[in-house]
C-alpha cells in the first residue's frame, strides 16, 4: 500500500513538473507539490527503513525512494532561491547512474508482471534523470523534450499505477 501512496504523489509531481517545464505553472507555485511529494516519499522511506517489518529489501527500497525525495526537495529549493539548477543536474547524473543497475537487475530477475513493470519504471526514471543532467548541468537545449518526457513519465510510472495500487487493482 505504501508503494501506491508514494507513486500517486510521484505521478502528481512529475505531471505538474512537466507542465511547469512547459511554462504552464509559475516557478514559485511549483514549490508546493515538490515539497508535499518530497515529504510523502520521505515518510514512506522512513517507514520502509525503520518500521517494524524493516528488512534488507525494505531498506534498499527506502534508499532508492530517498533519491526521489531529494530530487523533489531540491527542485523546490531551487525555485525559492532562484538558482540555475546545475547542482541538481549533477545529482541527477548520480541518480541515473545509480538506478541503471536497479533497472537491469529488476528486468533480468523479473518473475511476475509487477517485477517487469518495476524494472521498466527504473529504466524510464534513469532516462528521465539523465535528461535532467543534460538539461541542467550541461545546458543542452532539450527543455521541451524533457517537459514532455517528465509529464508522460508521471502518468505512466506514477499516477496510473499508484492509483491502481491504491484501488487494489494492481
From TrEMBL:
**Which membrane topology term applies here?**
Multi-pass membrane protein
Give TM regions: 6-23, 30-51, 57-75, 87-104, 116-138, 145-166
Q: What is its main location?
A: membrane
Q: Where is the signal peptide?
A: none
* The keyword Membrane appears for this protein: yes
- Which keywords does the record carry? Cell membrane, Membrane, Transmembrane, Transmembrane helix, Transport
Q: Which Gene3D superfamilies match?
A: 1.25.40.600
Pfam families in alphabetical order: AmiS_UreI (PF02293)
In its keyword annotation, does this UniProt entry include Zinc? no
Family label: Belongs to the AmiS/UreI family.
The protein's name in its UniProt record: AmiS/UreI family transporter
